[in-house]
Structures
1.
Amino acid sequence: MKLLLFDIDGTLMLSGGAGGRAIARAFAELYGIRDAFRGIVPDGKTDPLIFREIVGNHGLDVVDETTAFAELATIYARHMADEMPRSAAARLMPGAAAIVESLAGREDVALGLLTGNFEPTARIKLRHFDLDRFFPFGAFASDHGERERLLPIAVQRAEAHLGRRIGVGRHVVVIGDTPRDVECALLHDATAVGVAASRYSAADLRAAGAHHVLPSLEDVDAFTAAIALH
C-alpha cells in the first residue's frame, strides 16, 4: 500500500489570500497591530513559524509562546471561517479535485495530509471545496511547529486509522509544491513528488531533490506512473 500525504496550499488549492487576512485579523484583535501579514512569504512554512516571524517583525513581547500561539490559533480559525467563504480568488489547483477523487476509490492507496496549517484551518480550507471528506487523517502544525517532524506523525495516524502497520519509507509519498515539502520527504527516506503549479518551478523542485516533478496534478496517468501505481 502507498501512503499519499498531500500538502494543501499551492498543491491542492489556494485560499485567495483568506489565510493571510485571517492571520492579520487575529494579530489585530490580540495585539492591536495592523497589516501583520505584510511582507510574509508563507511558502512551505508552518503556521507557528509564520506567527513567530510576525512576532519578531513587530517586536512583540511574547513571554509564553505556547499559550500565545494557542490563543492566536483559536482566533485565526474563527476569522478563517469568516474569510474563506467570501474569498473570491480562492481556487482549486488544476487537476486537484479529479486526482483526489480518482485515488480515493483505490484499495492500494491511503490519502492523508501533511500540512503546515493548523488542523482547524486546514479543514476549513478543504471543506470550502468539498475535499475534506477525502482526508480522514494527517499531520498538522497543531501537532508540531516544524514540518520535518510531521511525517512520522502522519504515518502513526494512518496506522491508527487503517488498523495496520505502514512504517516509514519510499512507499510513503509526500506531494507538495515547495522545496520544504521535498526536504521533509527526503529527511525520512520517503518519496518526494513536486508539483510545479504554484510559485516554485520544476527546476527549483528538482534542485531540492524531488524524486518526481509534475507540472500540475492534471495528468492522472503521469501522477500514478510517478508513484508506481498500476
Note: The CA atoms of residues 44 and 181 lie 7 Å apart.
2.
Amino acid sequence: MTIPLLLLPGLLCDARLWRDCLPALDGIAKPCIADLTQDESLPAMAARALGLMQGEAHFAVAGLSMGGYVALEVWRQAAVRVSHLALLDTSARADTPEQTQRRLDLIVLSRRGAFKGVTPRLLPALLHASRLDTPLAAEVMAMAERVGVEGFLRQQKAIMARPDARAEIGRIAVPTLIACGEADLLTPPALHDEMAALIPGATRVSFAGCGHLPSMEAPDQVGAALRDWLNPPRSG
C-alpha cells in the first residue's frame, strides 16, 4: 500500500525541485507536488495544497525551504491527517528584521520592473560551490523564471508573515525527518539541529556536498532519506 505524499516546493521553485527524487519512492509513495505560486499567505497556500489530498484520510507531507513553512501550516490545519512530516532546508524561526527588510527591498525592485529571478550572482547562496558552473545552475534559474515576478511577490509576502514555530513543534507526534545540505548557507545546519532537538524522536540527516537545494543537487541522497522516513529499515 502506497502512502499519499504531499510535496511542497520552496521560494521561486516548482515541481522540478522534487522531480529527480521521485524514482526512489516508487512502490511506497503516491507523490503529489503542490503549486505554491498562487497565494500570498501561508494559510492559503496550505489550504490549496490540502485540496490535493482531498479524500485521503492520512498523508505524508514534505517541504523544502518555504515549502517547510507551508508544511508546518499544513500540520496546523490538519494535524490529525498528517502521518509523516519532513522539513528540509528550512527553519522554525520567523524572519529577523534584517531578513524582512531584504525581502521588502526585493519587492520594491520587482515592482519597479527589476525582477531577475535567480541570477548567477545569487546562485552561491543556493547551490554547493561544486555545482555553480554546471547545467544544474541553469535549471535553477529557469525554474525561477517560470515562477515569475507575480508568484515571487506573493511568496515573499507569505514568508514575511510566518510565525515563529519553535514553541509549538514539540507537539509534533509523527515520524519527522529534519534534513539539509551540509553547506546550506540560507538555512544553516544549526537551524535544523534546533528543530530536531525540539521535535520528539525526529531524525536528523545531512546531505553531503549540498547547499540549499539538495533535492536537485543530490536527489539520490534525498530520495534515500525520504524512503527511509516513509518506510524505515527493519532492525534485526
Note: The chain has one domain: 3-95+158-230.
3.
Amino acid sequence: MHSIRTATPDDIPLILDLIRSLAAYEREPDAVKTTEADLLRDGFGEQPRFECLIAEVSREAAGFALYFDNYSTWRGRSGIHLEDLFVLPRFRGHGIGKALLARVAVRAVERGCVRLQWDVLEWNQTAIDFYRGLGAQFLDEWRIMRVNDEAIHTLAALEPAR
C-alpha cells in the first residue's frame, strides 16, 4: 500500500536524490546542478516557486511529483506544469505514478485550473503509453523552445539601453 504526502523542508535531501535518480533514468546523470539550498529557497521560502509530492511505500520513498503554476492567456485561467514525475524502478507497476499524477490533477481541479501539462522524452515509449492511457494528448504542432545559461544573458543583452 502506498501513500502520498506533501513534501516538507525535511524532505529536501530526498527530493534532490529523486531528481538525480530521474536524471540518470533520462540518460543525463551529470546534468543536475540543483542544490539543497536551491530547493529550500524555491520550494519552501516566502514565495514558493514549486510544490512537491512524495509517494511512500511502508514509509520508504517510492517517487515524487514536482509542479508549479502556469497561466493560459487564451483561457484566462491558471494551469499546472508538471516538471517531474518519477517512480523508482523497484516500485513501478503498482499504481504509484498514476496516484501521483491523479493527486496533481486534484490540486488542479481544486484551484480551478484549465489545464495540466508536462513534457515527455520522445524515446520514453513506456511513459508515452502510460500518459496516453490516462487520456493525455500530444500537442504535435508545438515544440519546446529554450535558452539556457549564457544564452539567457546573450538574449538579455539585446534589450536596448534604457
Note: The CA atoms of residues 75 and 114 lie 7 Å apart.
